[in-house]
Amino acid sequence: MYWPLTPREHEVALTIIRHAHPSPDEEDRATFTGVQQEAWDPPTMITPAQRVTWESNLAEAVVTNPCDCGSCPSIGMRPVTRVDDVARDDTGGQGDFANRIILDATVDGCMLLLFIDDDSPSYLELAPTSEGIYTEFPPPERILF
What is the pLDDT of residues 65-120, one digit of tens each? Predict the structure, then answer.
């Protein structure tokens, strides 16, 4: 089963696509140990053309996998043309993607991540960094980049 993104989910994902940068960035990576640096790829430069592609592909995304942890509103997404593709990852984990970029933002004591797999948004995650239950994504104007 799948359904359209809510207006808020769409606004948040769109705001992240337009303004966020990959995680970890150069500043974060500089603090990594040698082992950590080997495990993480260097940050990828994001081009305006990529952002346009991601924005266009967001219009084709549907919710396929809401998080069931009970403390966050995170959602898995797939292009509507791939909703039945069981190899397509929509949980932020492993999948059949060739290229993954994770865009990073913060809001109100939470990490806010958007996973882009092969140029399509695949997982919008609000990860609380403190106690609390979040039932919906915050308004885009509160997101920090």
Answer: 999 888 899 999 999 998 888 777 677 777 778 888 999 999 988 999 999 999 99
C-alpha angle 37/43/110, rounded to 5°? 90
Cα atoms found within 13 Å of the Cα of residue 83, Cβ hemisphere only: 12
What does the alpha-carbon distance between residue 99 and residue 103 come to, in Å, rounded to a whole number? 13
pTM of the model: 0.87
CB atoms within 10 A of CB 77: 28
